[in-house]
Amino acid sequence: MRTRKQRWYRLLHTDKEVVNTAAELNTGSSCHLQLHLFTHTMSFLPPAIRQGLISTRCLRGPKYICPRLSQRIGHRSLHAKATEYLQAHDPDWTESQRTIRESIAKVCSKFPDEYWLNAEETKRYPLDFQAALAKDGWLGVCMPTEFGGSQLGISEAAVMMQTISESGAGMSGASSVHMNIFGLEPVVRFGNAEQKQRFLIPLIQGRERACFAVTEPNTGLDTLKLRSMATRDGDHYILRGSKIWISTAQHAEKILILVRTTQLDKVTKPSQGLSLFYTDLDRSQVDVSEIPKMGRAAVDTNTLFFENWKVPAADMIGEENNGFKMIMHGMNAERILIAAEALGLGYAALRRAAIYANERQVFGRSIGQNQGIQHPLADSWMNLEAARLMVYQAARMYDAGYTSGEYANAAKYLAAEAAFRACERAVMSHGGMGYAREYHVERYLREAFIPRIAPVSPELICNYIGERVLGLPKSY
């Protein structure tokens, strides 16, 4: 005789049993079977389930489970295992956002946890994962339709990135496509017609990959003090300098790079004198050196050194000396997407912790019965949900044209902190097994440092809120 948790596992993973259970419960009964599942769970259910055997009309307020189903698999067990699919976290999403989640989850299901574990251990870049998303046109989710994109908003892109990370791909999966999703917004907004045609189509189709280079070894987040220079030489610019923490540069064909075209001591404002180029990453002129790092080994991070890098003047985006203004247009969107990726990572860790806490038996009972396990996980779920509300609020405001950065920064801060805590608690809930790679949560914890640190530290976000929202004196 199967235990309740075994029956629940089979309910989620065996279509036939779902159909039979639903049919049995609906025969001669007026009750509706209302399963609290995510759209990516619904995507692999047969049509009979999607067309009425399961009612998902109750999108607001409490969800009620048929009492007879509760008797069969247990209300508490259902609620615990539902964490695996996190279907409860989209009550405020639109139908198009749910469709995106379902479609992305279907792609991600072809790349299970073992794929990402192997990619991590072998430091293998997930080119096939990126190609699978490109095949279905997802790399152009925010790009203009005239170039093959879908021209959807950051809200939809955030759903996509959360789903990727939450699938178990974590930051490795998200980072492999992050730049392609919205990184070329400066080209979309400020590029000329010829540049858009030349640059956007290959990126959307997945034929080219891009990386983004701003940070320098001696300036960090003090972007206005960049030292890398570009000097005009006929129809070209000669670039000299260095960049650091450049993701995917080992595999990117293109690079979006910010450099100085006027010396800092010759401009009237610090934000002047910086120019933006989108050009070939010519490794015969640029030394690309990978940085060994704690996590996300599947996706490289690099330093760049260039002394006489010849870049066509036609690859400059917008006007000379106005590059800083251009990259600022994409900063809020980047923070929102990073926040969504952090959410996915936190939910993935929490899902594994809940499953393990249900299955692990010590002293004759599930460790999930112990409040020392249960309460921290419940707290993390609430923190993730609170952060999720901020993330999608920030996304909606961005899509509506709101340009101030307090909500995007707050979303990044809250999501990163909630995700880190969830990953840490997932490791601790596994005990010694949390330290074993085969359980994946240690990988999540190592990757959880990325959204905490990048693209801006939590301390600088607090500075921003203190000054811009609370009106406090500048602290640095």
From TrEMBL:
InterPro entries per the UniProt record, alphabetical: Acyl-CoA_Oxase/DH_mid-dom, Acyl-CoA_Oxase/DH_mid-dom_sf, AcylCo_DH-like_C, AcylCo_DH/oxidase_C, AcylCoA_DH/ox_N, AcylCoA_DH/ox_N_sf, AcylCoA_DH/oxidase_NM_dom_sf
CDD domains: ACAD
Cofactor(s) needed: FAD
Keywords of this entry: FAD, Flavoprotein, Oxidoreductase
Designated name of the protein: Isovaleryl-CoA dehydrogenase
UniProt cross-references to SUPFAM superfamilies, sorted A to Z: Acyl-CoA dehydrogenase C-terminal domain-like, Acyl-CoA dehydrogenase NM domain-like
Record-annotated Acyl-CoA dehydrogenase/oxidase N-terminal domain positions: 94-206
